[in-house]
């Protein structure tokens, strides 16, 4: 899926058209209906125009929060740049003492960034 400008959409579609493992499942012209289009189509990758490559698109956090399996390819045609966005779930662990005190301590503990990362 890609939004404006039309020339960018046509170029991206031309590049993708010959790829046997990639299928275009939808296209919109106006970003105002973007959230609804993503909800309807459930794409693996959303391709969208980016006005400023140094700023994240406004809906990026919302869309990736709602559809964490989706990736967003944002292209800034006027700057000849692009940005690839995706979300990850970061699960951390910490050993727990198997006792009443250990359980209560874990329940009261505030999560921190220290721990073992499992992906």
Comma- or semicolon-separated keywords:
3-stranded mixed sheet; 119 residues; alpha+beta; two-stranded antiparallel ribbon
Description:
The chain is α+β, with helices and mostly antiparallel strands and 119 residues long. It has a domain at 6-85. Helices cover 30% and strands 18% of the residues. It contains 4 helices and 5 strands; from the N terminus they run H-H-E-H-E-E-E-H-E. The protein has helices at residues 6-17, 34-41, 60-66, 100-108; strands at residues 45-49, 71-76, 81-85, 91-93, 116-118. It has a 3-stranded mixed beta sheet, with no helix packed on it. A hairpin with a 4-residue loop joins strand 2 and strand 3. The protein is elongated. The mean pLDDT is 82.
The overall average pLDDT, rounded, is 82
| Percent helix range | 25-40%
Main β-sheet, spatial strand arrangement = 1-2-3
Q: Count helical runs.
A: 4
Low-confidence stretches: none
How many strands, which pairing sense, and closed or not: the largest β-sheet?
3 strands, mixed
Tally of DSSP β-strands? 5
Strand content: 15-25%
Q: By helix and strand content, what is the structural category? A: alpha+beta
Gap between N and C termini, in Å? 29 Å
Principal-axes shape call: elongated
Q: Write down the secondary-structure element order.
A: HHEHEEEHE
Rg for CA atoms: 20 Å
């Amino acid at each position: 899926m890609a939004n404006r400008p039309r020339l960018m959409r046509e170029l991206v579609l031309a590049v993708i058209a010959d790829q046997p493992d990639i299928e275009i499942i939808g296209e919109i012209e106006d970003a105002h209906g973007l959230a609804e289009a993503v909800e309807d189509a459930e794409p693996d990758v959303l391709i969208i125009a980016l006005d400023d490559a140094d700023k994240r698109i406004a809906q990026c956090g919302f869309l990736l929060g709602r559809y964490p399996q989706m990736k967003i390819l944002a292209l800034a045609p006027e700057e000849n740049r692009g940005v690839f966005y995706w979300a990850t779930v970061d699960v951390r662990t910490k050993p727990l003492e198997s006792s009443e005190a250990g359980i209560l301590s874990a329940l009261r503990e505030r999560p921190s960034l220290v721990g073992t990362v499992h992906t």
